[in-house]
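queue> pop job 88
queue> type: inverse folding (structure -> sequence)
queue> payload:
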């Protein structure tokens, strides 16, 4: 047998699977009706649709999928899952009629979670955050983005990012970290003559260089909003991030239209997130930027303004779906639930929702070898006992994968 025809030494063979490859946009789900998938050294090494040819393949470990559906491992590309405390009392205030914005303006909201987070040791922060990650992993998530933004000084932002990295080391998941220093003005800057500008200068001149130097952040995010920071201030952060070759993204157009998405796209943002108030006329700027839809925050804040999904679809903009898991606007540790909400609240199709939580989420994180089943892609996979992939978006709190591979290793069965 020649070197070329010698089959690779496979770690895993997954036989008799229906496969949602999501590897092309022409075919529904990129579906294969009966395939055998071979994994080697953390990568997808073989995809064999011919059952006679599959018979000749062998691996150290084999599983008969019995025609269950195999999808890429799910990717939650926007979470704030490391934080201390909770905001149940704020939830009660909002149900009595107070708005998210007025609570923030009187020093509650994000700042109350900053106060709770700063009181915790790194160990306690890890212990409080780990169960939230565990809930996501139970649903077949194999990659998760985790933001800082509840420390708002170098010591505590560093602690949050360190905890996020440690979660990635202790659990079978790829963690992408994001520095969100520009999330809110911390209490110690409130006495400055221009608190927002004074804090943004501090973020850009003191915190960002140290965070970049530490290697703890894979990207930089901002909150561009009336209760957050102006477009000019966010652009200042983008320029500072880019001086350290850190890619950028933004919470934009969540509660009003400041045109932060246009500014972010101009700076080649990986993604623009929320975008309920994005104008139809501005959608065209997102050709190379992923639109991340966060329906849980829309739901939890009783929002009524929906993101311009029809215009995004018509313009061919990649739409991702994420949980936004955070204590203030999305206390929901479920990416499958976010997919359901994206369909019910934002009119995505179940296929768009699955692509949004796999291949498009991968693009939002620049993880180009994830979110898709093709030879050479990362061996992050989930196997589901369903008859059609639409079931993942249809049923609420119903489906859990029967097996998950992360980095080519079986992480759940
Ligand atoms: O994605 N909008 C800003 N950040 C978070 C919420 C933060 C909070 O309220 O704690 C979001 O909605
Ligand atoms: Fe968020």
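queue> result:
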């Amino acid at each position: 047998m020649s070197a070329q025809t010698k089959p690779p030494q496979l770690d895993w063979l997954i036989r008799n699977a229906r496969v949602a490859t999501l590897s092309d946009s022409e075919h529904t789900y990129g579906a294969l009706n009966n395939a055998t998938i071979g994994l080697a050294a953390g990568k997808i090494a073989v995809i064999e649709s011919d059952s006679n040819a599959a018979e000749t393949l062998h691996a150290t470990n084999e599983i008969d999928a019995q025609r269950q559906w195999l999808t890429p491992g799910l990717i939650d590309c926007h979470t704030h899952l490391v934080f201390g405390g909770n905001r149940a009392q704020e939830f009660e205030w909002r149900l009595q009629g107070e708005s998210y914005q007025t609570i923030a303006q009187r020093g509650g909201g994000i700042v109350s979670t900053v106060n709770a987070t700063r009181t915790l040791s790194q160990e306690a922060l890890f212990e409080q955050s780990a169960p939230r990650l565990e809930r996501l992993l139970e649903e077949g998530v194999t990659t998760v983005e985790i933001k800082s933004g509840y420390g708002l000084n170098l010591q505590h932002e560093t602690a949050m990012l360190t905890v996020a990295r440690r979660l990635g080391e202790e659990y079978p998941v790829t963690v992408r970290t994001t520095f969100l220093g520009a999330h809110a003005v911390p209490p110690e800057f409130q006495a400055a003559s221009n608190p927002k500008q004074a804090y943004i200068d501090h973020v850009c001149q003191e915190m960002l260089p140290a965070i970049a130097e530490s290697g703890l952040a894979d990207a930089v995010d901002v909150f561009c909003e009336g209760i957050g920071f102006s477009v000019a201030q966010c652009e200042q952060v983008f320029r500072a991030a880019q001086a350290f070759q850190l890619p950028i993204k933004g919470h934009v157009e969540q509660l009003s239209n400041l045109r932060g998405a246009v500014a972010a796209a101009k700076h080649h943002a990986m993604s623009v997130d929320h975008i309920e108030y994005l104008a139809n006329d501005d959608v065209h700027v997102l050709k190379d930027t992923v639109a991340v839809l966060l329906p849980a925050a829309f739901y939890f804040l009783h929002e009524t303004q929906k993101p311009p999904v029809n215009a995004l679809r018509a313009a061919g903009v990649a739409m991702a779906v994420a949980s936004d898991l955070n204590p203030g606007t999305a206390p929901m540790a479920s990416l499958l639930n976010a997919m359901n909400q994206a369909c019910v609240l934002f009119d995505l199709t179940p296929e768009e929702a699955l692509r949004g939580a796999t291949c498009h989420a991968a693009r939002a994180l620049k993880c180009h070898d994830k979110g898709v089943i093709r030879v050479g892609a990362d061996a992050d996979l989930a196997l589901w006992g369903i008859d059609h992939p639409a079931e993942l978006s249809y049923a609420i709190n119903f489906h859990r994968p029967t097996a998950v591979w992360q980095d080519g290793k079986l992480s759940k069965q």
